[in-house]
Write a structure and sequence with these properties.
9-stranded mixed sheet; alpha/beta; 4-stranded mixed sheet; about 35% helix; globular; about 350 residues; homohexamer; UDP-N-acetylmuramoyl-L-alanine:D-glutamate ligase
Chain lengths: ~350, ~350, ~350, ~350, ~350, ~350
């Protein structure tokens, strides 16, 4: 079984030591992007995964490829060309100060790419799962039509389409997201959508009342929204959502819900210390896909995926480098503080 | 409207990674000092502010000026000369281990300076607010008389005198502080005095019983002390105080009280994760002054100032680099963990 | 009064910034090992202490010696020779991710050493306390017999033998530990054994039910085990144990129990933020020995030792560099967050 | 006397330790750009200087301003707006490996700016010297016409126009440069043009035979080209050029030539170790302007400017932070290796 | 055309900033080893290359694989198992102080591996070139017989065997090297042997008189030795050697000689600044193989290989990350110091 | 045989990466001072050495002790008390930019110390060599009289007095140095005085013509001055001097001269790359003393001392950590670039 993920990998420049960007004399330089993150997670779990994107012909493009190849992701289908690599700057928050992202991804090789760049029949030739996210269509209309082309081919070839709705308010409006998602969703088989993104991505009124301290208590309302999505699009067999109570940048409670083939499943609730604030949703998605690939029971899919996400929150950078045994140990944890 | 702050800026050498000083192979090198901190805060908020001090004619003196000029503080009135820049070493505590300061500021250019160094009529020519703190008179009797000279000029020119009582037990005794403050206070219009400093600075018996976990509960007693200060010195229209419950180096609750023109105001209480343990009081002071300059209502002055202080606790270094919009976002926070 | 500690000091290579080892482009390089840690703690407290080990004749061996000599430990009895220095890699956990140790200490100069390497009569000539731990016998049978030789000499010379049972499941089995301890314990005078190690080291069924969140509540059961150890080995006058509730890598509650000359003592319970996850037990042991050397009352021994351990958890590296006054300040703490 | 410089300041991201970009886990983050560099140099020499550019309204734009304000440059005329800050990546070469620049400056706030952004009559109101370089017109035709507008105003107001021809082959072609320079040069009073740029910028056939080891020997030919430039444009009173023999990234010989009011001047030849490979030409330009402002004799202008450039090569980053006394000490150097 | 390289990859721990090991509070952590270095070089040049070794099942083993996979090396044939990863410590010299290596590679997974670990028929199934070095047989007699097994299979399958004689005096004696090489060389087709290693590896008396400043002048003598090797072993069609004049750690002259199919070729002589003192020979070997694979003329093979080696000396770490265009630019260099 | 050295050890704060102090966001924190440096050198060579100074009772004082104890120096005679540790800031030069020292050592514990602080009869009880330098008397007249007291006791006890004249123009005038040296020299047995310090320390007109590129050629003149010193003070049996041609911060030639018991000896001349610009003279002094202690022939004393100094120039920090075998390898060097 093979997975292909398609999206943008960016150079991520992070102010060290929780500094504000204006204080920093150097930036940590890593790479990340939802679809690359999912690819790396799956490769670390031992799955066969291709990551597809477009990167410029310069050393930063090479570095983007090396970043995923390092962990066993197949990079042979990455297209080279275009003007620049996308960049995002991250200022890590702490306590009451939220983390802040400055996107500098306009005019990147990927953002400027379109259908002519990707030979979908070849790229999808040996794939069983095709993973995409709501970030790519937010970048350009050319990418929207590219995505639609790809998922239609998937449909004809019985490739499972996995879509993480991932709403990014700095990239497009909720109205645009909803409009695009209406076109895409009829081709989607698995959908991940977290917290209040249900409203921004699908226009489904959620129960979220704006108080981020009190989300999990409203899980019933989230379940109803999840079922509604599955109802609207018959191709969908799985909807999975993380819901979070957020107390501060470092502290929150995390739970997850799964609606699969007409049944609901609920994870345990984790009380978590958060070290690395990004890409836990991607780790969750990879965990769900891994569970499906390996025929986990639905409850195990969900618990495994949430344990992967929880572990990601402890790992610096965008990639979840946790191994299968690390994830399983968290699922069976007895509050160990050291293994020696 | 212009503000002038007067005091010492020191080279601050901090052991990295919460090491003890004896473990460190390098020190982080930044600059700070209550009055410089206030100046930088105000400049970041867009106000016109001059910082006045004395620094030696060497590259460390240049660096001290660059540290404030970088953020828009006017440094034209800084006097050059003297033997050395003051230094303070900071060992960051954590958990139950308190942070520790080693002062190495004796014989600094500023500590050795006196009335002949500062041309007060020129320095105060275009100023509306003159900010000083209880640290300067703790350094020498020459500086005490310099301060008295300056505030008397302020009185004749209707310049508002802002005094942060800031008691430092490693620099002078409570008895000396009380004696000096009795001379100074008749010229003060705004007074900031936090927690148990009310006793050390003014000899007013406070309610503090030595249990730092349980200060906020005694706010009534603090209010009485604040009113007493205002009673004693008719020039004073504003007394503002932060009161804190301290659980560990990283965790505490913060609240603030304002007595202005005969009325009391209370802030909300913040439950805070503390990253940077110094200079939150200076951020508070700058927030109060900014609120007054921009004609905020008293409750808004207080809430804005405490939000600024709370935000400062998340920012490394002595300077509060938070912007006006950052502060207002905290005042309206809904527990965001990331903006993207 | 002099103390001699005997064991391995290793090069400790730690992934920085809570990274996983696979992410790190550099490792922090420090030195540590239970017996070296105890020696450094005692030296920092002003006691006369020798550390005995075997280190290779290369610059890493020199560096191991320098690491303890730096803090006043006498290194004159360290034997030089053998092939390599032992190494351990540490991946610092956080939140729900436990810290992980990779030992690379096989074939080290110390692990390969044996009786011919140590001139016990000379080494023990001026010593009053001989400190060893359960790590050394876990390394080889040669070291087991070396230890037995040494403690028999101690018996004839009335040198107090201090044994920290310190079980390490990655080095030997519980069965082997129990078998060796049965040979050693008749020569031991003070025994430290923490939490569930009572079972692994001595085969005494403890009350620990596998839930690390709920250990302290079972202190009565631990006391019974401690008394049982003292009963079994008449040479023992002191058994001391730390018991911990662990919530996450950074958060736990710590308490300690002492059984001395037939009486039980209990420490207060600390609610602790944990920064440095290793070597707190060694700090505790050093605190106990220091208390005995200086004729503290039993309750004071225990409280001092636990305060030392608690403070160690705030200090990076393996060595507890806290001073006597730092420890006493913690014993009398009023939640200070900064001293200035 | 006031100077105004106009151009782009970029975020400069440099691979540390002479790594290739693909090896770096962090980048040094500084700021630079020819016209900002000249402004900082002049400010460090005590001159009154404004830097004008356009920067986005985000924290990276703030940081760009802070970078020059830190050293005393007046930033009040900087325009805010646009999409992004320009970036350039630097891979430091060494030995036979040349340094490599990756420009990522398209679509920056400055590159997209044009005449409507700059209120030239106000900006030039109190200026005596207006400094620009050949980098700005290489960015867009909008900036070309903006520059022509500005220099025409300078002509009417008797403001001296200083132009560093600075050819950048990665930004435009020689043909485009020559075409633009023909329009600009009639308004220029001082022209700096180094080494083989004479051909690329002005189409004047130089003597350079492609052997960078042997440039200084051909100084007579360079002089002829310099005189030719002065002949072609009667507004020009000063042409100054650095000529270099390059042996490796770290080693070269530097000399400079000046043609002023019909007379030639030659500097001494420096045999230099090069630490920081960029911005020495900007330091030279600032040195020339400083000399003119302070009425140095022509030979002193040239020698001072070349000493400044030579010193810049020893200082990390783009800014020449050397002081006037540092530069004069180099002019009178006796091979000191330490001052103590 | 595919290449397979076989050997050990080690964790390389380097003291930063040219410190001695005893001074370092952290070590740079990279990976290297002759055969891995060759594999990475070839992958960066776009060739298809497999690296074969044995690594332990722990995160350090994973990291060793990631280190080569990052740059496109195929790691599918790497065997997992054994006790530890080999380590080497590097103290970078400078000036007159030579760099110093401490090997800690005994008992590594690779050093303990033998014939049962490697399925040669499968590993060599699709390979055209098999690259090995004199370091592997220096590690154990088991590895010697493994190597002989492998090269005999190569002979039957017409796979070219490339052998870099690479003598390491800290691992085995010259006598042992000569004895093994006599067994291996009948199966070798290309042999690389540098400087005085001719004597240590083959017992051929070279002209080297112990003066490392004056080696290149003796090239005639080296040529005779090279021809002698080719004469002794008819399977050999190519012998290539680097010869160096060494003035200090940072400065030397490098040249190379090639004897191919009965003809001699000489490279130009480079006068080089040396930044990274290791693995230039591996870069040379990769350059030679790349030239052969791509049918370069013999002189071009040699010049390309030496340019690759010269460039490697400017790149930190063990891997030559230079691209094909970088190498060709050096071959055609005109002393550029920056590309912009 | 024991040596005692007496002088100040300072905290040394160095701008990293050859930055100017104004650029640095952190400083490297090490410790150094001529007499401490000599002590560490001797301890690394295996000699028994005490270092005597006065340090404040704070963690920086502890750190100063740890810095020398780490390498085996006996610190038992160090006096604790006073106000602060002396500090010096170092800006490393490069190329034509000289390194620059900012002393901040006034009012240090040592600078303020005097005769009452040092119990000379006890300190000198078991010493054979007493090492002092010209830096101590430059700090205060109290220290001048302390030194005279100590050397008089040495005379009565037949302890050899070693004096490194070490002139520091930033601490005192040449006239003051000459006046003090006239009092001290009658008690000195070995005198080290380098380059042009002969004039500043003793008023002996040397041949130095101000051209630092051409000092060694004037060695005959230096020899005459050395003999003159020995003539003036009959107690002196040894005068040793380093003479240097300085080309840049990184490059010079070094030689040394010895006048011992009426005979002259000359070292070979080293052409050196200089990495660490300070404390080579101290390494030379330690090498001379070590040679005398171990009865080296005079030529060997000189060659060993200069090799030690040359090696020091390659080692970061103030301490010469070279071992005896490292030094001897340099004496017999054949331009090795790596040992492996």
């Amino acid at each position: 079984m093979h997975i292909t993920t398609f999206g943008e990998i960016m150079l991520k420049l992070t102010a060290p030591k929780k500094q504000q960007l204006i204080q920093s004399s150097h930036f940590e330089a890593t790479f990340g992007g939802a679809e690359a993150n999912v690819a790396v997670s799956l490769a670390r779990l031992g799955d066969q995964v291709h990551f597809v994107t477009k990167l410029p012909v310069n050393e930063l493009g090479d570095a983007g490829i090396a970043a995923v190849a390092k962990f066993g992701v197949n990079s042979n289908d990455i297209v080279r060309g275009g003007n620049r690599i996308g960049i995002y700057f991250l200022e890590r928050g702490n306590g009451i100060r939220p983390s802040n992202v400055i996107y500098d991804r306009s005019h990147s090789a990927f953002a400027d790419s379109g259908e002519l760049d990707y030979d979908w029949p070849a790229i999808l030739a040996n794939t069983n799962y095709f993973y995409i996210s709501g970030i790519t269509p937010a970048l350009s209309s050319k990418l929207q039509s590219t995505l639609l082309t790809a998922v239609k081919i998937c449909r004809t070839r019985h490739i499972e389409v996995v879509y993480d709705a991932n709403f990014r308010g700095k990239l497009w409006s909720s109205a645009d997201a909803i409009a695009f998602n209406e076109q895409l969703m009829p081709y989607v088989n698995l959908c991940f959508v977290h917290d209040e993104d249900i409203y921004d991505s699908f226009g489904i009124k959620d129960a979220f009342d704006g108080n981020r301290r009190n989300v999990i208590a409203q899980k019933q309302s989230f379940k109803e929204s999840m079922a509604l999505i599955a109802d609207m699009y018959p191709s969908i067999h799985t909807v999975a959502s993380i819901i979070r109570d957020t107390y501060s940048v470092e502290h929150g409670k995390w739970a997850a819900l799964l609606f699969q083939n007409g049944h609901f499943y609920e994870s345990p609730i984790y009380d978590l210390t958060v070290n690395a604030e990004v890409a836990a949703g991607d780790a969750f998605g990879a965990g769900m896909i891994h569970g499906l690939l390996h025929h986990f029971a639905p409850q195990d899919q969900l618990d495994y995926a949430l344990a992967a996400a929880a572990l990601k929150l402890t790992i610096p950078g965008d990639f979840n480098l946790a191994s299968d045994s690390d994830i399983k140990a968290i699922m069976n944890s007895t509050n160990r503080s050291i293994n020696r």
